[in-house]
Amino acid sequence: MISDARTLPADTTLTADIAVIGAGPAAIAMARVWAGLNLKVLILESGGLDLEPAAQDLHRGSRSGVPYFELHESRFRTFGGSTYRWGSRSAPFQEIDMIHRPWLEAPHGHNGWPITRAALQPYYDRVPELQNLHVPFDNENPPWEKFAVTPPKLNPDTLRYGAFQFGKNLLFGEVYRAELKAAGNIDVLLHATVTRIAASARADHIDRLDVSTDQGKRFTVTARRYVLSTGGIENARLLLLSDDVMPMGLANTHDHVGRYFMEHPTASAGTVETATPQKLHDIFSPGLISGRLIETCLAPTRAMMEENRILNVAAATRLNVGVDATQALREIMWNMRARKMPRTLGWYRNNNWLKERAGAIARDPFSIVGNVVRHAMGRPKRFKIDSVRLELRSEQAPNPLSRVTLGTERDALGQRRAHLNWALSETDWRSMQVMAHHVGAEMTRLNLGTLHLADWLKGDTPSWPSDLVGGHHHMGTTRMSAAPKDGVVDANLRCHGIDNLFIAGSSVYPTSSFVNPTTTVLALALRLADQLKADLA
Q1: Distance CA 277, CA 164 (A)
Q2: CB neighbours of 232 closer than 8 A, spacing ≥ 6?
Q3: How far apart are alpha carbons 163 and 94 in whole angstroms?
Q4: Quick one: pLDDT at residue 340?
Q5: In angstroms, what is the C-alpha Rg of the chain?
Q6: How do residues 363-422 score in pLDDT, each as one tens digit?
């Protein structure tokens, strides 16, 4: 059932076996495991079925450190969470991403996961059904035989190929709405913002959740188990806000809550001078499998990472496309799919962005037809290329100075807003620099082109370029650890020292890899769902 908290009588107390805070992809994945069981599940979603300004405003916050997106533009309060705008880009973590790496020791903190990559594999195996991915698919060994592309043979000592697959299930809130609505034991309560996780006097047990609607109506929720699943910023924020018993916030005995915020720093490493730009780019965008887009990248081998003491970094070409009809249509369609197209007629009359793209389509419509045919055949598209650049996308070293805290401003419910200080380190910069040099040397060796290195990667002094961005990926703020002194949750995602509070989402990541986080979020959520199912049976 899906209902609206605003229809409840004030001061109601709701009970459940499992109460989940947030209705993003992790919550939806868990709910599907629990559907039909003899368990009452209550999912509390702060937003509605679609994006609403009042709910989205609760995400506003302040920023410092490395320039970052406005916080309310980087995550979404709605049923389905941040799948409201995503591409379902999928790849699992590798073993190297999860093991302890001695070269990432202090000041970056303990970096190994308390679970193995092998332990996650059974849950990774269940993710393709959620994202509607093609199987089988090996992300570490791209199936080149399925494409009209022959990749050059890389130096196996330094570089390898990796691959991403784009799933067909995008908006989880729409894809799985009917299924959850029909589940007799699942209640999704919209416009229900948890304002406090109320703990016992010793802070070792959660007694209830205090909840408010956007209209100020308040009620409480009690459950046998609680799962916090509101994203990498809000998970930390809600723990810090729940400070009536523990002044530093819940699960924060060792001052880890909010620390180790990680993103995927992404920037151009320079331009690539090549006589065959399309042929070069085809290596990184080889085509489709069963209608699903495949992208590839270059990544360092484990030996190269160990030798150079660097992080895991992905490198791929990106095209600077001029007036191209297909690209213009792609941008329009992407903005429509990502719900970025304004709905006011005045914007369309006055904005040159749309006029320019419509004009490009009108001047060369037959090139679109050719690319539609290539798309249907699973072949890479053809564009009018102005230039090619090499893009780097790195994991970020765990850094305690990169953190979420509580700001001074308050939201409409009287809660202190989040403050994000995004801090990057010399290790982050040097990893990207080393990767750029290796990729450039390999391009030269293979006669693929010449990399003209960007200024920010030259010399020995770290600097960051103006085009540096993240991926809207918020990780690490409630990190997983074997020992309470090293993190917030244990290997089973239970908060250290609290017997009935669990955390789901990428906030539990001790390290971040360079891959998009949601595939691993889903795998961990399925694992947690199975654990709670067995625990409460």
Answers
A1: 21
A2: 261, 404, 473, 474, 475, 476, 477, 505, 506, 507
A3: 12
A4: 55
A5: 23
A6: 667 667 766 666 666 666 666 677 899 999 999 999 999 999 999 999 999 999 999 999
